[in-house]
Amino acid sequence: MACRRGGGHGQPTLATLSRVSPGSLSTCRTHTHNICMVSDFFYPNMGGVESHIYQLSQCLIERGHKVIIVTHAYGNRKGIRYLTKGLKVYYLPLKVMYNQSTATTLFHSLPLLRYIFVRERVTIIHSHSSFSAMAHDALFHAKTMGIQTVFTDHSLFGFADVSSVLTNKLLTVSLCDTNHIICVSYTSKENTVLRAALNPEIVSVIPNAVDPTDFTPDPFRRHDSVITIVVVSRLVYRKGTDLLSGIIPELCQKYQNLNFIIGGEGPKRIILEEVRERYQLHDRVRLLGALEHKDVRNVLVQGHIFLNTSLTEAFCMAIVEAASCGLQVVSTRVGGIPEVLPENLIILCEPSVKSLCEGLEKAIFQLNSGTLLTPENIHNIVKTFYTWRNVAERTEKVYDWVSMEAVLPMDKRLDRLISHCGPVTGYIFALLAVFDFVFLVFLRWMTPDSIIDVAVDATGPRGAWTHQCSHSEKGGENNEMSKTR
Amino acid sequence: MMCTQPITNTKEAKWQKVLYERQPFPDNYVDRRFLEELRKNIYARKYQYWAVVFESSVVVQQLCSVCVFVVIWWYMDEGLLAPHWLFGAGLASSLLGYVLFDFIDRGEGRKKSGRTRWADLKSALVFITFTYGFSPVLKTLTESVSTDTIYAMSVFMLLGHLIFFDYGANAAIVSSTLSLNMAIFASVCLASRLPRSLHAFIMVTFAIQIFALWPMLQKKLKACTPRSYVGVTLLFAFSAFGGLLSISAVGAILFALLLISISCLCPFYLIRLQLFKENIHGPWDEAEIKEDLSRFLS
Fold this sequence. Notes:
Main location (chain A): endoplasmic reticulum
Helix content of chain B: 55-70%
Oligomer: heterodimer
Subcellular location (chain A): Endoplasmic reticulum membrane
Pfam families (chain A): Glycos_transf_1, PIGA
Region (Disordered) (chain A): 463-485
Strand order of the largest sheet of chain A: 3-4-2-1-7-8-9-10
Mean pLDDT of chain B: 88
CATH architecture of the largest domain in chain A: 3-Layer(aba) Sandwich
Largest interface: A-B, 60 and 36 residues
Number of strands of chain A: 16
EC number (chain A): 2.4.1.198
């Protein structure tokens, strides 16, 4: 813990890059940070968490910070890769256990992670997703090493069943001494505060964002002789595919000029196919199967109305993407969805076939009577709501605040664990924290921090990439090169 | 908390629970409305003491069945009960139960399942013939296993039978097949320690009667005539207690205490512990689909 800040890289230097929109909120002095994003979920896996990490990192690099990403190896993709703007990604050789999450023993990842944290002179660990074992491992080790920690929670959990009782307990342990937590919506914040028994003051709400330039409307792509309802989601129970299977026959019988386009794949696809077969709707219900992220926009712009039937959702990027493409959104009123879009852009329904059909009929009526906003108008309203630059700016403020905080020393950390996590769990994890510390001391004796090479910075204030490319701007493409360690 | 914010118009601006508007509050702001949608114990059930006691009778019955089974085995093993008597009594009570089974609900259950009496007779005959034919094998099957092992195994199997038995709870651990199999395995184990193969045959038949047929009749009694079910349970409990008393007084007292604690103390504790229940609900809960969606597919 002693020699962490010796390198001089963590020293505060004023950000040299121009701020995007200074605004009223950014009055405090900004330091640059060496940030390490850790999550099991990253490209080539696709999803909300993955794109969040990528976009946030890009915007933070733009703001002059050094950012690296640590994830586990995906098949052949292992070692170190560089993405756009010199974003360095470590694909660590850790075994995947279930659903792309690594197995955890709490200790086996310490040697690798410590090596990375030291050679990259990391000052802040930012872990993502409560489903990721690696993220929790990294938090645990970072606290042992005396590095500041931030955690972003992307999902909602219940409290009723045994599995959520267990995961909530683990989250309590993991977050009780984490410096700051970020949630993507107010509902998610309430949920996380309850699950991990946190002080709500250390939980910030920073929503997700979408890139409005990726999701632009194109009214000429849709046929105005028919009304098209678009659904883009994984076809699983939690996304309410069962409700969709009730809505389709109900509305198709009522409106002869109504078509459905459904993008996405999943175990519930079969029931949609059964419905299509049973009601002979092959020409009116198109099932597109799995969509690549870049194709989503081209599917969205073909529709007039976007339908979201999720049963639980922390933020729901899909409805923002759809609204950004100029569609009228009809959605279930669950989780954080009511916070995401203003009332004139979304029709909220209860999660039942009847209520959703009523909502859709209302949207169809408005469409036929011409009272809906034009796609271009909707796009112009939505594009101001959520931008990655804003997210990065707000996240940066969390980093600034965290970097001024002291990391709990070992004795206080043990006290916190024991007093905060209950008598049994508290003592078990306090013991594990001590083991982790002893293991760290052993590793420091084996390979002292001083003989670990300092990595070449691609990004950040001394980043080679930033200096090279500051005059020849060439973003947008993924430049990848392998490098041996 | 975070950097000192230039909060200019906080007084006038009211915090809204929306994400699309930039509000003049720091990101970690906690409003008074924080957690206002939190609900506690909305689906919690209120229990009535006597209703819980009534439901606990299923457990009592099953404990008594195991007890009666072991007592009968002990009598057979000691030579105090002739196999003919047990067979006769078992046959008579089975016939009585069979008639009752149809009489209680006036044959509605039979009409619904569409099972004929001929099918019942056939399966009974097949079972009796096979058990009778294999009883010499059952008798000698576990002869080489030491008696202590047999006893230990029987105890574990009967405990397993009690654990996995379908008491009506909707839990993953419940498996009536496994439960029945464990009981029959215990009976085969114990039967092999009896003097002759006729004993073994009758022991296994009796096990089927008490572990497979008797719970079915109980279930029907409980559903159709709760009053008589309470009477039958009490009678059964007393006979189990009496049987155990004739073997060991201490065992009988312990058994009685067990039954009383299950049927009286445990319900009391269940109701007391309800006061400490804190079931949290809120907008983050996964929505439930309440309608029957299969109608769209059929």
